[in-house]
Amino acid sequence: MTASAAAEGRLNVLCGADEAWCTGIEAAFERKSGIDVSMVRKSSGEILAQIRAEKDNPKVDVWWGGTGDPQLQAAAEGLLEAYSSPVHSELLPWAQNFHDISGGRATGIYAGALGFAYNTQILEKKGLTAPSCWKDLASETYRGEVQIANPNSSGTAYTALATLVQIFGEDEAYRYLGELNENVNSYTKSGSAPVKAAARGETLIGIAFMHDAVTQKQAGFPIEIVAPCEGTGYEIGAVSVIKGARNLDNAKLFVDYALSAEGQATGAAAGQNQVPSNGKATVPPEAPDIATIKLVDYDFATYGSADMRTHLLSRFDGEVKTAH
């Protein structure tokens, strides 16, 4: 990053990561660049909806963080600008592959596996057995004890939906979701909200990305983290430049920073535990070890397509009651 290129101007960013990381990278990039950054935190589904609505008059320059599936959809719809950062060669293969799948319009910045966490104090108080599998969560044992986000607004919950379809097959996945619905006390807007609720004792079980659960456990909350026995999906969080960005040069500078080891270190500094995509970045010591988790071969190209997203969400809205 050159001082002359970054010494002035503004930048508007929509952030899909945790609020703490949004704030941290905003401050770090402003210090590094001298650019005045306006960053707003929203869930991934909300960001996609906003970018679609503003496509003829974009008010945002960069989409940073959150699950990558919606960014692949935005790329396919021509809402993102193709950009290959000079930092690209430092990225791990899964991040480079994500860039290729998107047609060069989005790049992976971190990875994280899906799972769930339960509050150990509530479990003990109620005398319940601990869940270890996806199928366990649909048991009558946990009636009214589960929280998950709504996949219409949350990228985390859409990843969960697509994961279950890939594990069980579509029809069986929706039968399972119907059974799980009987146990869900709330469909939240934010993907990390369920595990935060479990940490605070507001629900027994929260379905979320495991790194979000680690953050709660590090904060001292009584939760146990589970990688489901059947296997699980994972996210690749991504960054992209919005097509028609008003501050295009600054947007590219931000992408370069977000993909750099220095930029990715802002995650651990903000208490986040995702696996960074830059091979030179330090992996947070408490980050879930993806190599030891049974992961599905998550099909980002298929489940990141607009047609598949529309189909799965339509079926979810039609077959799974979300009025809680």
Shape label: globular
Helix/strand-derived category reads alpha/beta
Task: Spell out the helices and strands N to C.
Answer: HEHEHEHEHEHEHHEHEHEEHHEHH
**Cα radius of gyration in angstroms:** 19 Å
Number of strands: 11
Strand residues, percent: 15-25%
Distance between the termini: 49 Å
Query: What average pLDDT do the residues reach?
Result: 95
Quaternary structure of the protein:
single chain
* Helical fraction: 40-55%
Low-confidence stretches: 1-7
Biggest sheet details = 11 strands, mixed
Our count of helices gives 14
Written description of the protein model:
The chain has helices at residues 3-6, 19-33, 44-53, 69-76, 93-101, 120-126, 155-168, 170-181, 193-200, 210-218, 248-259, 261-269, 300-303, 306-319; strands at residues 10-15, 36-41, 62-67, 80-81, 107-119, 146-149, 184-188, 205-209, 223-226, 234-242, 275-276. The termini are far apart. Residues 1-7 have low confidence and may be disordered. It is of the alpha/beta class and 324 residues long. Strands 1, 2, 3, 4, 5, 6, 7, 8, 9, 10 and 11 form an eleven-stranded mixed β-sheet that branches. The chain is 42% helix and 19% strand. It contains 14 helices and eleven strands.
Give short descriptive properties of this protein.
324 residues; alpha/beta; single chain; eleven-stranded mixed β-sheet; 42% helix; disordered N terminus
